[in-house]
Structures are given as C-alpha cells and as structure tokens.
C-alpha cells in the first residue's frame, strides 16, 4: 500500500499495458462465422432467463460460487510470488 498523495507507478504501468493490448486487439478485423449448433445451444440456455427480470445479482452470485473472491492475504501472497519476492 502506498501512502496518500503518492502514485503507484507500477499499477499505472500495468493499466497502460492492458489499455494498449485492448487497442491493439481492436485494430484487428475479425471474420467470425455463426456456428448454428453453438448459437442454438446459447439461445436454448438463455431462454429461461428471457422474461425481463433483472438477473445481474443471480449471475453475480453464481459467478462467486464458481470462482470465489480471493482473500486479501491470498492476493498479497500471489502478487509477491508473481513479482519474484517469494
């Protein structure tokens, strides 16, 4: 944690790298073709949720069930390991 009034340049650098990646990917034209069996599967899977209800909370909680949030101590250990400090 960096103190108040200070800039975390590493964090800003990572954000800039992600933005550059997104810009680069957006420049690439993609020629995607519909695969009827896949489109049908997706449409059939989403049909039960097509009644106008706001399901954002439902899907958010389902996402958390599938991949729980990382605890702060776990996150810190992972970041230290990824940066080579551990």
Describe the 3D structure.
This protein has 86 residues and is mainly α. Helix content is 60%, strand content 0%. It has helices at 9-27, 36-46, 56-66, 72-82. 0% of the residues are buried.
Offer a quick outline of the entry:
The protein has helices spanning 9-27, 36-46, 56-66, 72-82. With 86 residues, the protein is mostly helical.
Strand content: under 5%
CA-to-CA gap between the ends?
Answer: 18 Å
Q: Low-confidence spans: pLDDT under 50, at least 5 residues?
A: none
Biggest sheet character = none
How confident overall, as mean pLDDT?
Answer: 88
How many helices?
4
Q: Which percent range fits the helix content?
A: 55-70%
Q: Helix- and strand-based class?
A: mainly alpha
Specify the overall morphology.
Answer: extended
Cα radius of gyration in angstroms:
20 Å
Strand/helix succession: HHHH
Number of strands: 0
User: How many distinct domains?
Assistant: 1
Q: Main traits of this protein?
A:
single chain, 0% strand, 86 residues
Mind sketching the topology for me?
Elements lengths: L8 H19 L8 H11 L9 H11 L5 H11 L4
